[in-house]
Write a structure and sequence with these properties.
Blueprint: E1 6-15, H1 19-31, E2 37-50, E3 53-66
Antiparallel strand pairs: 1-3, 2-3
């Protein structure tokens, strides 16, 4: 197994649908400009409440990018 080095970045995605969709939004957008994304970790989940209902989700992620050789 070869040795790898990763850079850690933080992203925050949002969605009115779900927390899972907020994760997908963040990763899909980041994939347009970043290479070698290999893993993510959800570090924070927030939501906006209106009239007792969740109106919007916001999820913060740590994303590991493998540095190129």
């Amino acid at each position: 197994m070869s040795e790898h080095v990763y850079k850690l970045i933080e992203l925050t995605g949002s969605s009115p649908q779900s927390s899972d969709d907020a994760v997908r939004v963040a990763l899909t957008k980041a994939a347009k400009t970043l290479r070698n994304m290999h893993w993510f970790e959800v570090t924070e989940t927030r939501g906006h409440i209106e009239d007792g209902k969740v109106l919007h989700w916001q999820v913060t992620l740590k994303v590991g990018l493998r540095l190129e050789e």
